[in-house]
Amino acid sequence: MNATFNPQRLIFGASSGLRSVLYRSVATPLGTWLLESGALDRFAARNRERHLTGFIHHEDGVFYQYIEGEAEAVAQVWHAIQNDPRHEGVTPLHLGPIPNRRFSRWAMGFNDGAKRSLHDWAARSGLSLKGRREAQAVGAFLEYASGAAAR
Hints:
The protein is of the alpha+beta class. 36% of the residues lie in helices and 27% in strands. It has a 5-stranded mixed β-sheet, sandwiched between helices. The chain has a single domain, classed as 2-Layer Sandwich (Alpha-Beta Plaits).
């Protein structure tokens, strides 16, 4: 039997449909390379080609990104992110099926902590960014931040 690598099957099983990935990572080099290098625009263009939507937040050297779309496209991007040397400590917070898109207007929305801080928002909201509820808190923050995002 010829076994070929299939990231969709590995991560999400054999079914199709909408899927999402929410992860946290530390980017190398730190700073604003995402905007200064034009990478954010390139990633957004690729996402549009793949019919992916999502949102990314950068604060204190940490990135939180939510990507959503058809299972195969999400799995391929997730595999690429995990193998990208610009990321360290890639930690999935949520992987799985979703009933509908959260960020349908964003090919790649962006926010940084100077505009809206995840840490300040969590403290004001009484939410923890640790443990089992981290994915829910980060997802809710990304929805909040997307309302005022410049991109």
